[in-house]
Specification:
By secondary structure, the protein is mainly beta. About 15% of the residues lie in helices and about 60% in strands.
Length: about 300
């Protein structure tokens, strides 16, 4: 039997913009096993760790991490405030991470945080030892809830994301999601900031980078509305133009890009409209050129 404790420690994590304080960590060996308890303050919240194992020689470790409104990151590109209720259990041959995490506040700059699209030619990848990779196997099954103050910016999007997403992953495998996220705000397309009328990102046990999209973003001009509908998947999105009342795709695209119909397009707006048509890809350039020429 015996005990060990450290209290009153603090730390700074500059890369995450965090200052941790009021830290405490204690281990106690008692006749029934080993007890672990820890706590630390981050931002305006606290994280609490409890766990241990029984005295039996075959006993396995188990831990719980709970908290309320603890900061996990506070940088210009990423701010996360969350409340975890997680469990970590040692099983025969692996570890299981489960529970829930509620993200009450976040600011995520997707463009800054996005990984590089390709590796430098100077980078050399060396195969790791297989035994080392297999030393710690784990499984994760966690429900993440995004609250009303989760903001995402980047790649043309500027708005809020909310909903529940069940995340599952095994060591050495991709992460998969189950659930639905609602998005609202603005989407930049064809040089305009369109209002998102409907925004859903759907995960049906799909990889996190391959959700199904159901998004409509539009612009209003007088009594007419024209917008962009994005369906398909994140890797293979399909983009269509829609309008209310119904009009040709060329007319709707002109309304999105210039705020006017084809009859009102002139000068530099013609080039902007042609570029938008080429970017869209579903409207023939010849068709649009003919429409503009007819005017």
């Amino acid at each position: 039997s015996g005990a060990f404790a450290v209290t009153g420690f603090a730390a700074e994590l500059p890369e995450l913009g965090l200052q941790l304080s009021n830290g405490a960590l204690a281990f106690a060996a008692v006749p029934t096993g080993i007890i672990v308890h820890g706590a630390i303050t981050s931002g305006g919240g606290q994280l609490i760790l409890d766990g241990g194992r029984d005295a039996d020689a075959n006993a396995r470790w188990h831990f719980e991490l709970n908290g309320a409104d603890a900061e996990l990151a506070d940088t210009p590109a990423l701010r996360l405030v969350l409340s975890p209720a997680l469990t970590l259990q040692q099983r025969e041959g692996d570890w299981l991470l489960g529970g829930r995490v509620r993200i009450s506040e976040a600011l995520i700059d997707a463009e800054v945080l996005a990984p590089p699209s390709s590796l430098s030619s100077d980078v050399v990848i060396v195969d790791a030892d297989a035994a080392a990779l297999d030393a710690t196997r784990w499984n994760a099954d966690v429900v993440v809830t995004l609250g009303d103050r989760v903001k995402l910016v980047g790649f043309g999007f500027d708005g809020l994301v909310r909903g529940d997403l069940r995340l599952r992953q095994r060591s050495g495998d991709n992460a998969y999601g189950q659930g639905q996220l609602q998005v609202s705000g603005r989407y930049a397309a064809y040089g305009q900031r369109l209002t998102i009328r409907r925004g859903r990102v759907l995960f049906a046990n799909s990889p996190l980078d391959e959700p199904t999209l159901d998004i409509e973003a539009e612009r209003k001009a007088g009594s007419a509305v024209a917008g962009v509908r994005v369906t398909g998947t994140a890797r293979r999105p399909q983009t269509d133009i829609y309008s209310r009342p119904a009009m040709s795709e060329s007319e709707a695209l002109a309304l999105i890009v210039t705020g006017r119909g084809l009859r009102g397009v002139s000068g530099a707006d013609r080039q902007r409209l042609s570029n938008a048509a080429l970017a869209l890809g579903t409207i023939g350039g010849d068709l649009l050129a003919t429409s503009l020429g007819a005017e």
